Amino acid sequence: MNRLVIASRQSRLALWQAQHVRARLSDMYPSCRVEILGLTTQGDRRLDIALAAIGGKGLFVRELETALQDGRADIAVHSAKDVPMELPPGLCLAALSAREDARDALVSPRYESLEALPEGARLGSSSLRREAQIRAQHPRIRVLAARGNLDTRLAKLERGEYDALVLAAAGLRRLGLGERIRCLLEPEVSLPAPGQGALAIECRTDRADLLAALAPLDDPATAACVRAERALSASLSGSCRLPLGAFAVERDAHIHLRGVVGMPDGSRLIHAESSGPRDAPQALGRRVAEALRARGAQDILDALAGGAA
Fold first, then answer.
1. Which terminus, N or C, of the chain has the lesser number of Cβ atoms within 10 Å?
2. From residue 95, how far is each of 24, 85, 167, 243 by CA, in Å?
3. Rounded to two decimals, what is the model's pTM?
4. Active-site annotation holds for 82
5. 219-309 and 1-97+198-218 share a CATH fold
6. Range in 14-23, 121-130, 200-209, 238-247 with the lowest mean pLDDT
7. Of 82, 219, 265, 299, which one is the catalytic site residue?
């Protein structure tokens, strides 16, 4: 290949991710000119309403996928947690890069932990997953919607619209903002989103040349863990309207997967976990999803579906 075009959102974090992948590709293929096509997605434009109400995180990837389909771009770089569980026909995830810290992080100018937040404190969150888990454990905290890219949310915090934010640690660290982290939320407190901390590289399935060229960027352990998490989510609707966390770690060629499903108000949380061989991640994800259903997740799914109707 003489030239390769990466489709990316134009937020600072998304461009960092695209530039990171560009640098790795340029190191591997120095004769190839790698360019970035910056695009604004509907998810970036619609900041006036919750994501769950307008189509979910898939709004951050559709314009990038269109660029792949019409040939304007060769690959797209996403935060893996933003990629819908079902991809459009003809597209695939060619590589999942080595994972950064997958945990959530508390950012606050005044408070060092969730426990330190006072009664009625305003905590900004962009996901129902975080909201459900935090409400369940800290009902005294007011959890408020916090839309916008990372810089936008941090600016709102500085203006005093929130007392604290919960953000992905990986994004803060990638932008050199790790010092803003007051504490990391362990998975027992806030189980991460499926794919959180990993980068996903998407391309067309008919590009055998690209699939081969991108293979060195794939981290097998990360890929297996993320595929298990995504299989769990897909088995339980895969919608961002469902407060769902899934996090897997590799242990001696096996994967241990934990999942949680809850009501947005935190009134109910259901947990399940299991282990399985690294070479069968989807089966493990489906098994944990079935365990969640057996413990009552279907009741939550039905209740949320009834509310949406």
1. C
2. 13, 15, 24, 26
3. 0.92
4. yes
5. no
6. 238-247
7. 82
